[in-house]
């Protein structure tokens, strides 16, 4: 069934707007509208009960203009080619906005991993990697975690690739467990980047995070760390949610305990309620707070609920949580949005650091990783802020313009083969 909001069409719409602000001609950026490669694979898996089931998987390489392709792998029932294409294109823009030497890619399998046993999940992962093996490699395309994929799964990916090569190749995938070449600080990096983005926005506006009220949608890898670090930075997290629903408490929620709870891969509705108000995801998005952090899936804020958003600021931890139409409504209503390709870039920045460590067979201290992440985020945020103000546009346009300039420059310098 066709999606109501095709995320790849959303990407192209935003790209066109940014290109117009930069006075680019269609010739300058037409290639960015097309992914370089797309592979659709069938994955037969022997289930524990002896049945054979076939899953569909995708790997899309959007661009290799600025370096090897880079992007996560998602396990979710809604995965389809257009979603993976959009996620891959956003990776190209994200790597360019933070100026790391990568292009963009993404992968996905159409599956709800909670319905599989651990053995089935491992067989599915290994079969997927075997099928996309010709495309990936440390110089080619480097996967990482995304929704429903974990460091353990990244370990299986490293092993599957290494077994084919006959020697250990840690640089083929990032987000690995520390013991097999993962980087200190990678697990927290996306959430940390979200917190840094929120802090920088507040600083630009002459405010601080101290006492700012926050609601967070999605308490997975990204949302739970963002909530924890915002809380530790002095913000008051009053609402959180996940797929099972959410909690609201005007005096603030016990974020340290909630973080421990979800870290054990438990849902929020399994948390013993201490008198908090139960809320739905729709209610969470419309809470009267200073800062809203959508950290779940795309298209959560659309034309229908955008007029009801009461947050003053939104920091997009998820990829594509706001549709272009909703973005315009929010902009008109004075809601300031720090866009996904900047706000959630912390993950790929530390993935890049992990890959660099793997290629050098060297290990950085966690403080050094975090300092380098901070430095990278501050530089990118300032560039986006300045460009947005120079062109009198939104921060999303600032981020897209910053990224587009870099991708277009690389494409021009390389030229078109043959
Ligand atoms: P995750 O699987 O760890 O967590 C997803 C969370 O969202 C879970 O708490 C889940 O219950 C919740 N959720 C799912 N569907 C929902 C719905 N319809 N309503 C409310 N909650 C829902 O995934 P993650 O890695 O934290 O990724 C979250 C978002 O961040 C995605 O958009 C992903 O692409 C983006 N992102 C992730 C990374 C990373 O390093 N993992 C990096 C950049 C961007």
From TrEMBL:
Residues involved in NAD(+) binding: 190, 221
GO molecular function, one term: nucleotide binding
Any one of the GO BP annotations: L-glutamate catabolic process
Domain Glutamate/phenylalanine/leucine/valine/L-tryptophan dehydrogenase C-terminal: 183-415
CDD domains: NAD_bind_1_Glu_DH
Xref: InterPro entries: Aminoacid_DH-like_N_sf, Glu/Leu/Phe/Val/Trp_DH, Glu/Leu/Phe/Val/Trp_DH_C, Glu/Leu/Phe/Val/Trp_DH_dimer, Glu/Leu/Phe/Val_DH_AS, Glu_DH, NAD(P)-bd_dom_sf, NAD_bind_Glu_DH
Active-site residue list: 106 (proton donor)
Gene3D superfamilies: Leucine Dehydrogenase, chain A, domain 1, NAD(P)-binding Rossmann-like Domain
Annotated protein name in UniProt: Glutamate dehydrogenase
Species assigned in the record: Candidatus Pullichristensenella excrementigallinarum
Lineage: Bacteria, Bacillati, Bacillota, Clostridia, Candidatus Pullichristensenella
């Amino acid at each position: 069934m066709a999606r109501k909001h095709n995320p790849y069409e959303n990407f192209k719409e935003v790209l066109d707007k940014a290109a117009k602000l930069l006075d680019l001609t269609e010739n300058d950026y037409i290639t960015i509208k097309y992914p370089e490669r797309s592979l659709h694979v069938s994955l037969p898996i022997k289930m524990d009960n002896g049945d054979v089931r076939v899953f569909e998987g995708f790997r899309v390489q959007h661009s290799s203009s600025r370096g090897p392709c880079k992007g996560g792998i998602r396990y979710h029932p809604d995965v389809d080619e257009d979603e993976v294409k959009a996620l891959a294109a956003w990776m190209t823009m994200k790597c360019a906005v933070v100026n790391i030497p990568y292009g963009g890619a993404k992968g996905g399998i159409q599956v709800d991993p909670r319905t599989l046993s651990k053995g089935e999940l491992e067989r599915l992962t290994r079969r997927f990697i075997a099928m996309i093996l010709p495309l990936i490699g440390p110089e080619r395309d480097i996967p990482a975690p995304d929704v429903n994929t974990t460091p353990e799964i990244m370990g299986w990916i490293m092993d599957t690739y290494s077994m084919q090569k006959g020697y250990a190749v840690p640089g083929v995938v990032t987000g690995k467990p520390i013991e097999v070449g993962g980087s200190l600080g990678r697990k927290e990096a996306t959430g940390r980047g979200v917190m840094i983005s929120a802090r920088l926005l507040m600083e630009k506006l002459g405010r601080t995070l101290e006492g700012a009220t926050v609601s967070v949608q999605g308490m997975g890898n990204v949302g739970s760390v963002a909530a924890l670090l915002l809380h530790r930075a002095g913000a008051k997290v009053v609402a959180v949610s996940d797929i099972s629903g959410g909690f609201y408490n005007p005096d603030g929620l016990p974020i340290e305990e909630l973080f421990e709870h979800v870290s054990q891969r438990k849902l929020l509705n399994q948390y013993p309620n201490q008198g908090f108000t139960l809320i739905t995801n729709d209610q969470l998005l419309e809470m009267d707070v200073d800062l809203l952090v959508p950290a779940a899936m795309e298209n959560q804020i659309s034309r229908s609920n955008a007029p009801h958003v009461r947050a003053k600021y939104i920091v997009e931890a998820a990829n594509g949580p706001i549709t272009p139409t909703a973005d315009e409504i929010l902009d008109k209503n004075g809601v300031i949005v720090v866009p996904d390709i900047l706000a959630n870039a912390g993950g790929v920045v530390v993935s890049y650091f992990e890959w660099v460590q793997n290629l050098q067979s060297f290990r950085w201290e966690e403080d050094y990783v975090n300092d380098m992440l901070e430095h990278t985020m501050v530089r990118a945020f300032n560039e986006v802020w300045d460009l947005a103000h120079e062109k009198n546009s939104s921060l999303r346009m600032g981020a897209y313009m910053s990224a587009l300039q870099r991708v277009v420059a690389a494409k021009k310098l390389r030229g078109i083969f043959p």
